[in-house]
Amino acid sequence: MPPAPPVVSGEGSVEVRRGETVKLECHARGDMPITLTVAKDGKSLNTNDYRYSLEILESDNGVRAELRITSVTPQDSSVIACTATNAYGSHTHQMELKVQDAPEAPRDLRVTREGSRSVTVTWAAPPSPNAAITHYSVHVRVVAVNSVGDSPSSEPLTFRTEGEAPSASPLSVRAVGTSPREVQLTWTPPDKDTWNGQLLGYYVGHRKEGALGTGRSFSFDTVGVTGGSEESWTVGGLERYTRYIFVLQAYNAKGPGPLSSEVFASTQEDVPEAPPEEVVCVALTSTRVEVTWSPPPVHLTHGQITSYTLTYTPMDDHTGINHDLRAHSVSESNR
Fold this sequence. Notes:
Elements: E1 7-10, E2 13-17, E3 22-29, E4 35-40, E5 43-44, E6 52-59, E7 62-69, E8 78-86, E9 89-100, E10 107-114, E11 119-124, E12 137-140, E13 157-160, E14 171-179, E15 182-188, E16 201-208, E17 219-224, E18 231-235, E19 243-252, E20 255-256, E21 263-266, E22 277-283, E23 289-294, E24 307-312, E25 326-331
């Protein structure tokens, strides 16, 4: 094989809980010698932090980097980049480290409605680093009061709130036609404070542009969660050279959230499925003929017709035998 830059491989996304130890590895293969460096969020590792230890190990199979971090904190969440370089170039592989932590205290606690025997209490969701809030635990004590004074407090009552469907749609939705019958969609998950539970997956809907009906006319695929910072799905079985509308919904155990904004994409062109129609050949002179035709049906062209190829061959007047086949290309604009 010809000389080439090295290739670096490793994990894509790693999740770990606060206080645990994590080991990240990347492996560079290629023409030696190879120099392998590791960076955090685009900067050199802090070698003064005793929790970080980095080993670079060489073997017959290449070079391996092992980064070990003890007692991780949310501040360790970052993008770890391994860059391998040899005489022919360089290559970088990125790994996303997500440190999960317990949520902070709920915010903006308030009573929004008061009754003689009931109250309504509301609060705002707190930050929850890299782990969705699944429910809230509410502790209640009741004290009776009269003109003389207060009673002892009741025994505490603890209950959990129910979850609800996600309150936001997927973000940064993009659609690109990748073949005559496929469109690839990419998106990022909604903000975690809108998950309202554990995100289980997505519903990916599509329909042809111009089709009648409401959002219920979409055909939906069910897509699981990979846990990465970006999700993708390829919708197949589409019509060739056709414009489609796409929407997405995130869902959890309580159901689907709101639809995303609509995005549009067209499947790619394909070869025509039918020949030209109404082909007529008229002799004009002893050396000239005129050939006319109509395009194939629009629904069978599968794209923009740019030219036609005329294929013809001289024929022996006496034997009717065809001689060498000849071809001539005619652009659509010159017809």
